[in-house]
Design brief:
heterodimer, A: about 110 residues, mainly beta, 6-stranded mixed beta sheet, B: about 110 residues, 7-stranded mixed beta sheet, 11 strands, about 50% strand
């Protein structure tokens, strides 16, 4: 099964609202990363949070990490139509040389 | 900088044909990866490389081979294509291990008929 699982699988909100996506994982990690994928394009790295960090901000993005619950959340504030995309979490597992990606959350921002 | 460039962008193969997908990066990254993306399956790692001349198997390596003869290039080969290999293939690179963000190419959409 996937190391990282996003919830919900799909989310539809109105422009200007906040969007929250969650990611759960199973094993100990060094870091957790979030990526965005616009339709038909490659993934774009958004933010990385290390296992010893609890919260990180980047512009309108806020990521939290709870290692005791093995979960992370991505908050996008004041959403825009351009935020419509799929969002993936990826975990850097301790001792591994690669990231493991979840199945993604498809976010739709309605004008 | 171009980042990560994948060629070709689209390809249709007949069952049994072979092809090579090329990934080139100009960021002097050590690590390179090949993923496939299928609906409902997320990204699955096929093979990866931790440096020039090295390769390793990922989650779904069967039916694929790779080579990293030069640091900047990572080739993915399909020796005898099967319909199950219809997918979108993404190459990615990173500076060092999984402690850094990946830079992805724009993908190759492959259809095997």
């Amino acid at each position: 099964s996937q190391q990282g699982e996003e919830d919900p699988q799909a989310l539809s909100i109105q422009e200007g609202e906040n969007a929250t996506m969650n990611c759960s994982y199973k094993t100990s990690i060094n870091n957790l990363q979030w990526y965005r994928q616009n339709s038909g394009r490659g993934l774009v790295h958004l933010i990385l949070i290390r296992s010893n960090e609890r919260e990180k901000h980047s512009g309108r993005l806020r990521v939290t990490l709870d290692t005791s619950k093995k979960s992370s959340s991505l908050l996008i504030t004041a959403s825009r139509a351009a935020d419509t995309a799929s969002y993936f979490c990826a975990t850097g597992i301790q001792g591994a040389q690669k990231l493991v990606f979840g199945q993604g959350t498809r976010l739709t921002i309605n004008p | 900088n171009a980042g990560v460039t994948q060629t070709p962008k689209f390809r249709v193969l007949k069952t049994g044909q072979s092809m090579t997908l090329l990934c080139a990066q100009d960021m002097n990254h050590e690590y390179m990866y090949w993923y496939r993306q299928d609906p409902g399956m997320g990204l699955r790692l096929i093979h990866y490389s931790v440096g020039e001349g090295t390769t390793a198997k990922g989650e779904v390596p069967d039916g694929y081979n790779v080579s990293r003869l030069k640091k900047q290039n990572f080739l993915l080969g399909l020796e005898s294509a099967a319909p199950s290999q219809t997918s979108v293939y993404f190459c990615a690179s990173s500076l060092d291990r999984a402690d850094y963000g990946y830079t992805f190419g724009s993908g190759t959409r492959l259809t095997v008929v």
